[in-house]
Amino acid sequence: MRAHPAGALHAEGYGAPAWLSVPADVNALVPGLWSATASRGEDGALRVGGLDVAAIAAEHGTAAYVLDEVDFRARARAFRDAFDAAFADACGGADVYYAAKAFTCTAVARWLAEEGLSYDACTGGELAVGLRGGMPPERMLLHGNNKSDAEIARAVRAGLGRVVVDNLGDVDRIADAAAAHGVRQGVLVRVTVGVEAHTHSYIATAHEDQKFGLSLAGGDAAAAVAAVLARPELDLRGLHSHIGSQIFDVAGFEVAARRVLGLHAAVAREHGHAMPELDLGGGFGVAYTTQHDPLTPEQLAKGMAEVVVEACAALRVPVPRISVEPGRAIAGPSTFTLYRVGTVKDVELDGGARRRYVAVDGGMSDNIRTALYDADYSATLAGRASSAPPVLSRVVGKHCESGDVVVKDEFLPGDVGPGDLLAVPGTGAYCRSMANQYNHVPRPPVVAVRDGVARAVVRRETEEDLLALDVG
Ligand SMILES: *Cc1c(COP(=O)(O)O)cnc(C)c1O
Q1: Which SS3 state, helix, strand or coil, does residue 77 take?
Q2: Does 427 sit in the ligand 1 pocket, CB within 6 Å?
């Protein structure tokens, strides 16, 4: 049995997970989980972008995603600067494609364009948002395992810099679209390298049983390269590899980069075609709770540069221009979800222990990750500070589903009650983008805050919006 810092009162009986300890100060914001401008004000309330959360809630309602623009831009810039610097000597810098699926809207696309990033879309919808936000098409990339003819045609017509070949059939479809539009289309070939990344480890195998990309070991990737080179309408820019998500070290990228560079060098040897680029994908981890300790962009960039430079030297090929595709690591920590507590219920468990359920005005419709991936999140009482002792609590939503959990385990002040504001950090990635209208709960707005101004960059959905789809 682990000794518990707060003694028996809050320990075993509550069944807190081993990683979660009773906070010394339940009001303290856990470092690393919050956006750059978030802090507690003198009155104890959470502030962000120069605004009190009560003011944000009064103006925009709850539940709401509160997006710290300064933080988002800073993370985007940090990736761009770190990768540019780390690869400057080897290949003149690097390109950072923001993975739009993490979260996108036209404001975000504009910020990314201004900060010098590129944009990675995997559907026509994500493409449309990027274009409308003013992202230059040559800095955009379209990937996906099942791109429709319409999506391919739209990408080619819009002048996208790169379209990713994900299967052999893509080669002729993209080439035909390019021929129809009288252009030469830049393409990358997505390679599955047999590296499966997990949160704190990775598995290197020969084959991958998944729907994306073309197998390196099985020869499909080499066949696709040959097919691309046989179509003059296609400009083979390089290979593309993406090994997974929430990765906390460079070991997985190291194995992936070595394997994909092996094919890169073979293409130069066998076809006399030196591909100018190599895309190593995204998947850089973020901290959702105290369990996670992500690398900085500088650490990631330096580690990946060492691996790539060494592998290219061993293969005697020039270092191609490197691209990476962070989504979560830019968007995730920039945003917290602001909820209002509706009900609090203590439930008796087997053995006499009790669990506190704190229910908020959202849930699995605005954050499906807890239910879908068994993800951990944290939460804090946002509208005020409290001197009540911490109680292990479970934050749940309002949906008609017992798996509707937002935060499985968190110590919240014992006096949290109806009307209190609660904030869940790290919800900028894969929350609004995966939001749904389960139970006909309209989706929350995304409220960007900066310099004392809160503005909805995605407005709140209304019942009218939902009913407008219902044509009777
Ligand atoms: C999902 C995805 C990303 C982004 O992953 P993150 O974990 O958000 O960094 C990048 N590239 C590709 C091809 C992806 O599918």
Answers
A1: helix
A2: no
The question of whether 400 is a catalytic residue gets the answer yes
Residue range(s) defining the domain that contains residue 284: 93-326
Instruction: Supply the CATH number for residue 271's domain.
Output: 3.20.20.10
Q: For the chain of 472 residues, list the mean pLDDT of each consecutive stretch of 10.
A: 40 75 95 97 98 98 98 98 98 98 98 98 98 98 98 98 98 98 98 81 75 94 98 98 91 93 98 98 96 96 97 97 98 99 93 91 98 96 97 97 97 98 98 98 98 98 97 96
Whether residue 8 is contained in a domain is answered as: no
Contact predicate 308/319, CB 8 Å = yes
Q: Closest residue (by CA) to atom 15 of ligand 1?
A: 242
- Residue 79 Cα to ligand 1 midpoint, Å, equals 14
Q: Which two tokens stand for residue 283?
A: 């998947």
C-beta 143 within 6 A of ligand 1: yes
Within this chain, do residues 233 and 115 fall inside the same structural domain, yes or no? yes
* 331 Cα to the center of ligand 1, angstroms: 12
Question: CA–CA distance from 435 to each of 105, 383, 443, 446, 453 (Å)?
Answer: 14, 25, 7, 12, 25
Question: What's this model's pTM, rounded to 2 decimal places?
Answer: 0.96
Please tell me the total count of domains within the chain: 2
